[in-house]
Amino acid sequence: MGYQIIRALLYFFFGLYGLHVEGRENIPDKGAVIAAANHKSYFDPPLVGMALEKRRISFMAKSELFRNPLFGRLIRYLGAFPVKRNSADMTAIRRSLAELKKGQVLCIFPEGGFVHGKALGRFHPGMAFLAILTGTPILPVAIIGAEPLPVKKGPLAVVIGKPIPVRKARPDDRNTAALDELVKQRIQAMIEAYEKKKGQGSF
């Protein structure tokens, strides 16, 4: 019940910014999937949660966010678990593998932190490592317009691409780098395509 109330409040909040979601038909109905999204603001995790409304998601969040007991408890309830950045956090890796083994959606922001501007930042290898190790498909997610929230109104959009199949293998520098680049290019192309449609007044 509490989760549904929070979801309703988020729908109302993002509705003030004219949230537009595309590509929900690309979300697998069941089975493990890694949702990989670009990262613009603290609003990105709930935005992904709204966009993937037919699936409940788990997501990594930097460990610093859990220092406040009240806020930490809230985001844990919403599916977050801590990860220590700039280190091989084995606890977070084991939790990620457990979520995928259960057939859940795991959301990862491969840039690792906020990256402002139109270009995407460097992708860290964790997303690709987990996907290749487990053979889990990656769902590319493009977040557009979240950077100025809550100061400036929209347009605010989340675009969900088609899942990228991943063959299970032993992760190494070559295959993780190649997968990172493929996902990065896919998200960048989705952002550019949306911006082009928006400029042409196709909505």
From TrEMBL:
Q: Which Pfam families match?
A: Acyltransferase (PF01553)
One of its GO biological process terms is: phosphatidic acid biosynthetic process
Is NAD one of the keywords UniProt gives this record?
no
Q: What positions does the domain Phospholipid/glycerol acyltransferase occupy?
A: 33-146
Q: Which InterPro entries match?
A: Plipid/glycerol_acylTrfase
User: What are the TM regions of this chain, as residue ranges?
Assistant: none
Q: List keywords of the entry alphabetically.
A: Acyltransferase, Transferase
Listed GO MF terms: 1-acylglycerol-3-phosphate O-acyltransferase activity
| PANTHER family per UniProt | 1-ACYL-SN-GLYCEROL-3-PHOSPHATE ACYLTRANSFERASE
Q: What is the protein name stated in its UniProt record?
A: 1-acylglycerol-3-phosphate O-acyltransferase
Organism of origin is Dialister succinatiphilus YIT 11850
Organism lineage reads as: Bacteria, Bacillati, Bacillota, Negativicutes, Veillonellales
